Amino acid sequence: MSDRSALRVRLDRLSREFAKFGAVGGLGVLVDLGVFNLVRHFTDLQVVRASVIATVVAIGFNYLGFRYFTYRDRDKSRRTREVTLFFVFSAIGLVIQNGVLFAATYGFGWDSPLQSNIFKFLGIGLGTVFRFWSYRTWVFRALPDPEEKEAVQAAEALLERAPRQATRRQPDRV
């Protein structure tokens, strides 16, 4: 395969992954904003607390979507590690996302429902960039391509034989 076609294949895979990530993420944004506005409307919670609750609900929704739709073909062998990393990186994304809202609300006094939704949406955007990178890099790890897997297995077999062959040789006697 030429370098150009290999690049084209990688870009095609990345664009499909990004589209699936966007579909799940888009629904997650609707869940996040919906829960946020419901909590703000029906409770007296402060804006950032309402946002944190909504973000946690959306994180749970997104995990299910990412695991069973976007990254369903990825390595599932270490689920505990996956879940732990997912929630660690999601918590960092939560801080990024709600940090924007916190700064707008308490730093600049922008607390109307419209302003809160605008800054919540901007925070979601910044958090999403971080989450996309961290989830695909650390959480939902790609399985090796079949060609790569064969090359790794061949190299491992060669390395396993090398020590045995070295012990069979007798030193030259002078």
UniProtKB/TrEMBL annotation:
Main location: membrane
Membrane-spanning intervals of the chain: 21-39, 45-64, 85-108, 114-133
Presence of the UniProt keyword Repressor in the record: no
Subcellular location: Membrane
GtrA/DPMS transmembrane domain mapped to chain residues: 20-140
Keyword rRNA-binding: no
Entry keywords, A to Z: Membrane, Transmembrane, Transmembrane helix
Database matches in InterPro entries: GtrA_CellWall_Glycosyl, GtrA_DPMS_TM, MFS_trans_sf
Superkingdom in the source lineage: Bacteria
Membrane topology category: Multi-pass membrane protein
Similarity remark: Belongs to the GtrA family.
Name assigned to this protein: GtrA family protein
